[in-house]
Specification:
The complex is a heterodimer of chains A (about 280) and B (about 250).
Chain A lengths: L2 E3 L10 H21 L1 H22 L17 H31 L1 H6 L5 H29 L6 H28 L6 H14 L7 H7 L1 H9 L1 H13 L5 H21 L6 H5 L7
Chain B lengths: L1 E3 L4 E10 L2 E11 L4 E5 L6 H8 L7 E6 L2 E2 L4 H6 L1 E4 L11 H11 L4 H14 L15 H13 L5 E5 L7 H18 L2 E6 L10 E6 L2 E7 H8 L4 H18 L1
Parallel strand pairs in B: 4-9, 4-10, 7-8, 8-9
Antiparallel strand pairs in B: 2-3, 2-5, 5-6, 10-11
Helix pairs in contact in B: 3-4, 3-5, 4-5, 5-6, 7-8
Chain lengths: ~280, ~250
């Protein structure tokens, strides 16, 4: 007796509109989650404002900033550190969404995402876009408050800086995602603060121009130059004054691509750190 | 000539290691479409690993898994469309509403907002939680959350539903309700079910049973066949006899 297997109708691939629905759904959920964490929003704003109102005011007299591009005049220290603080918001946001991935994975939400039949690279990229999208209103709220503190870039600069923020938001999110897949130490926020956020922030051009760093330590100067955060800050600084820093653009674009590919590979089941990390339930 | 549908799940020679520890060892079994199959095993038997492989969370190291003939390794997207999953840990977003959780799942499957909402409302009506649609998940009871998770897993209309210890931590009534509800899905809608549990009393006489112990399938088939294989009167005795024999063999070797 021959038994013939009935072939089910093949359903392959997804229509572009379905990809759009999926991306929109992921961004929408990230947005809802952010709205539910009001403390996170307040903390995200208080952090850079403390730097701006207190630190910058205190150091205004100590740290003079000479005329360096993109500024065409002497600027107040507050004005100088504003782009760095914008990026600080994105840095925290990137780390927080990466930690939420670790948390999600333990809570199982990451599983919900990864068992979707959509391609995994697309799902993870959507997750990155969602994290980046959530950082934008935070940065613009900060800029709005800073405006009252007499930090007034040209009006067009507010628009010009948007693409720079999109790129840097993706870069920092991808970095966080990559870290969440490889490192177990970073599962608590203190670990991320000590080993990633502080070193990246301080060893960059966020708080002091690099020519000043060079006067102090040539080694540190090179470290700052190699830090992608420096380039993210410079990209935003130039864009805020309607200029393009090509080197920074190249570095940030390159790092974004590199970190994204790394993160997608890290969450690929066949290469997976996911399986190597442990057993179902993220070690449960 | 006879025509037959491919098995709902066909697992062939699947082995899986975490580093040096072997979690699954040459696991082979299949499930007939539109039946209720119980994957019976103690904690640590390898049930959750098997679920992670069926749902592509982990890559298959050795062997092959097919869902209605679609290979999870090579045609994962096609295979995953046909599966609804309920994981052992809760995977709902506690701060979002029931409806928002369901809409998110619909979006992950590329289902439009309008269609997704209609399906979600229909699903909630079926599990008698329509009036809780806008409540935060946090405010639901354990049994209600499980029901929502099952409704969510069915939202994209899969032909196979896999559930990993879905009744753990629930009270007796919720357990019975959920079991009865999933059994109804098999009878009324023709859904195929793989139900993993360590609770032997969840096995019914006409279920398919797979006994998984220390990563190996000790026996599988209908309840009478399993009883026969173990030479036991009831499924509890059969399970105890089979697993103890294996443990003794391992200790003796």
């Amino acid at each position: 007796m021959t038994v013939e297997l009935v072939t089910l109708p093949r359903v392959t691939g997804f229509a572009p509109v379905q990809y759009a629905i999926c991306l929109k759904g992921i961004v929408w959920r990230e947005g809802l989650r952010f709205l539910h964490q009001r403390e996170r929003f307040v903390a995200a704003l208080v952090r850079p404002l403390v730097w701006l109102f207190i630190f910058a005011a205190g150091f205004r007299q100590v740290l003079g900033v000479s005329i360096i591009p993109p500024y065409d005049t002497y600027v107040l220290y507050e004005v100088y550190i504003t782009p760095g603080l914008m990026l600080l918001i994105q840095l925290f946001n990137g780390m927080q969404s990466s930690l939420s991935m670790v948390y999600d994975r333990e809570m199982g939400n990451m599983r919900t995402l990864l068992v979707s039949p959509m391609p995994r690279g697309f799902l993870l990229s959507s997750k990155l876009v969602a994290g980046m999208a959530v950082s934008l209103p935070q940065v613009y709220t900060f800029l709005a408050i800073a405006w009252f503190w007499e930090i007034e870039p040209p009006p067009l600069g507010y628009i010009a800086v948007l693409p720079a923020l999109v790129l840097s938001g993706l870069m920092l999110g991808a970095l966080g995602m990559l870290m969440s897949s490889v490192s177990k130490q970073l599962e608590n926020f203190a670990g991320a603060m000590n080993f990633v956020i502080f070193p990246m922030f301080f060893a960059s051009s966020a708080l002091y121009p690099l020519w000043r760093v060079r006067e102090g330590s040539l080694f540190l100067y090179y470290v700052c130059q190699l830090n992608p955060f420096t380039h993210a800050v410079e990209l935003a600084r130039f864009a805020l004054y309607c200029q393009i820093n090509w080197i920074s653009l190249a570095v940030v674009s390159g790092c974004t691509a590199l970190f994204m590919i790394g993160a997608i590979l890290a969450y690929d089941p066949s290469r997976g750190f996911l399986a190597r990390r442990g057993e179902p339930g993220g070690g449960a | 000539m006879m025509t037959a549908e491919p098995p709902a799940v066909a697992i062939e020679g699947v082995s899986h290691c975490y580093g040096r520890r072997q979690a699954l060892d040459d696991v082979t079994f299949s499930i007939t479409p539109s039946t209720f199959a119980v994957l019976l095993g103690l904690n640590g038997a390898g049930k959750s690993t098997l679920f992670s492989l069926i749902t592509r969370l982990y890559a298959i190291q050795r062997g092959r898994i097919r869902i209605f003939g679609r290979d999870v390794g090579h045609a994962s997207s096609e295979a995953l469309r046909m599966v609804g999953v309920v994981f052992q840990p809760r995977t709902l977003d506690l701060d979002l509403s029931v409806l928002q959780n369901l809409s998110y799942h619909a979006a992950l499957h590329g289902i439009s907002k309008h269609d997704g909402r209609a399906r979600a409302e229909e699903a909630l009506a079926r599990i008698v939680l329509a009036d809780r649609a806008n409540d935060k998940v946090r405010n639901l009871s354990g049994g209600q959350m499980r029901r929502v998770e099952i409704a969510r897993a069915l939202l994209h209309r899969p032909r196979l539903l896999v559930l990993d210890e879905p009744t753990v931590g629930l009270d007796i009534k919720s357990r019975a309700d959920i079991l009865a509800y999933v059994r109804r899905l098999v009878v009324k809608d023709g859904v195929s079910v793989l139900w993993a549990t360590h609770l032997i009393d969840e096995v019914a006489d006409d279920d398919g049973v797979i006994v998984l112990h220390q990563g190996r399938v000790l026996t599988h088939g209908s309840v009478p066949r399993v009883l026969d294989a173990a030479g036991a009167e009831d499924i509890r005795a059969a399970f105890t006899r089979l697993t103890q024999a294996t443990d003794a063999a391992i200790e003796g070797s």
